[in-house]
Amino acid sequence: MLQVYGIKNCNTVKKSLTWLDEKKISYKFLDVKKSVLSKSLLTTWMNNIPKPYTWENLINKAGMTWRKLPDAKKTMALDKEKAIKLIMENASIMKRPVILKNENILTIGFDEFEFNKKML
Known about the structure:
Layout: E1 2-6, H1 11-22, E2 27-31, H2 39-47, H3 64-68, H4 71-74, H5 80-89, E3 98-101, E4 104-108, H6 112-119
Parallel strand pairs: 1-2
Antiparallel strand pairs: 1-3, 3-4
Helix pairs in contact: 2-5
């Protein structure tokens, strides 16, 4: 079973969950706003992130949360340890959804091509 980390009212997460439901792929949804994230989990993700992703892909620099951040906070995203702290302080800054299978990241965000390749 897949683990889907996201925020329930996020449009990208909704699109991803709809895709999974339509394909009848079972998953467990974990809301990152409800304390499911930990320093340990984020560190594991960042240290074991699969190609083509890098740990920096976990920060959503296209979202409103990022745009509203002061520049001092944005510089935190340049350093892996500080980026973990930034995500822990504000889970909305994380790119969503992060989908795992057997504790390994399959995809970050919604990309139908990647979903078809990795989940079907």
